[in-house]
Fold:
Amino acid sequence: MPLEASTITLTAWGLAFTAAIVVGLSKAGIKGIAIVNVTLMALAFEAKESTGIVVPLLIFGDIFAVVYYNRHANWNYIARFLPWILFGILIGVLIGNDLDESTFKIGMAIIILISVLMMYWWDRRKSKKVPTHWLFAGIVGTTAGVTTMIGNLGGAFSNIYFLAMRVPKNEFIGTAAWLFLIINLLKLPLHIYVWETITLDTFLFDLKLIPGIALGIFLGIRLVKHIKDDFYRKMILVLTAAGAVMILFR
Structure:
């Protein structure tokens, strides 16, 4: 169904604007809450249609984040992780139209929760050793690619990867900013020409939500400055786990 401003309810506008604020908070470094904006958009619009609305918002947020955190990016992690994500995106494009959404949601929530429990156990061990085998990046990256294409939910799996690598807070934010700017730009033509979930109407709607993203970025940057590295890791694990539970109720 085409998205027309005249048909959007006040409730949908409220949910969408709140989702835009959450996008800004997430891109400013409050990782793990990105699932909230996906959930709010899915509540405001049809599930598949909402994925196309969200992508340009993510790109706007990515640009803000890249400008602010650019100096903290570690390109070694991006080079190691990005090819696997791209492979996962291709899989997501192929199966996205036919995948049973209920099965996908349950499976993804279980995978995220298991990953969070593993990371919690990893932190409790107090070991400084990080996973170096290519299979770790391959499995997590491919899963991130599939989920970012189908539900814009790859952030949960990238969080797991960067936490496992024990990336410091600012480097975590800067690297993730560049990684997802690249990923979301590559997803753009797929949503426009393959799934046809991004149209002129959805783009014009997104433009009206930019102030919400800017507000979220403003608030998020100030919050991140006061969060210590150890607490930041725990906060991401808790928020990512909460997001996994929210997926089940989308």
Remarks:
- The two ends are 20 Å apart (CA to CA).
- The chain has a mean pLDDT of 82.
- The chain has eleven helices and no strands.
